TrEMBL record, chain B:
The chain crosses the membrane at residues 62-79, 91-109, 115-139, 178-199. One of its GO terms (molecular function) is ER retention sequence binding. The keyword Coiled coil does not apply. Keywords: Endoplasmic reticulum, ER-Golgi transport, Membrane, Protein transport, Receptor, Transmembrane, Transmembrane helix, Transport. This is ER lumen protein-retaining receptor. GO terms for biological process: protein retention in ER lumen; protein transport; vesicle-mediated transport. It is a multi-pass membrane protein. The gene is Dper\GL25745. It is found in: Endoplasmic reticulum membrane. InterPro entries: ER_ret_rcpt. The keyword Amino-acid biosynthesis does not apply.
Amino acid sequence: YPGIHVKDEL
Amino acid sequence: MNIFRLMADLAHVLAIVILLHKIWKSRSCAGISGKSQILFALVYFMRYLDIMTSYVSFYNSTMKLLFLGTSGATLNLIYRKFKPSYDHNHDSFRIAYLLVPCALLSLFLNHEFSVLEILWTFSIYLESVAILPQLFMVAKTGEAESITSHYLFALGSYRALYVCNWVYRYIAESHFDLIAIIAGLVQTILYCDFFYLYITKVLQNRKLQLPA
């Protein structure tokens, strides 16, 4: 998952 | 940022505004589950701990602070200022039944076994079921004020719109986060029965009353 998992949401 | 995401966040802010306005205007938190509000406060606190470690945008940080601040304010109104109006006899859902499974699940199903990541995952799982005490309360009393229904509709729409946002992002950016998507779907499904009642009753100017 690394790379896909970007926490830019709320 | 796409239109679904923007509308989702606006629906979320609207839900909070409706709730705070309802409590403040009526000087009462009757019909509102304090337990759901405790869970939401916990969700924001766990998820937005990263406000100190990672910066995404001004918008992102502002919204995080807004959600943290307003959930604290809501708890303050329910458990302090208007405590006499809090309907604790009907708010009898046992939150341990939600907290324990979410905690265990976040330990096993996560993106990475680290403290911040597990807390983030826990918050995602907990958010998906945090409305249950409120829905349980509505089921128990068999009715909800129109304003409470509007609040629930806005709050439910928020994650449903996030699901649209995730479909869009998967197509447009190949971006996806399976944990958030599955939890978001569960969260939205939990509201379906309520959405049906809202559309067939509340929007026709009838009170939300459950069949006996």
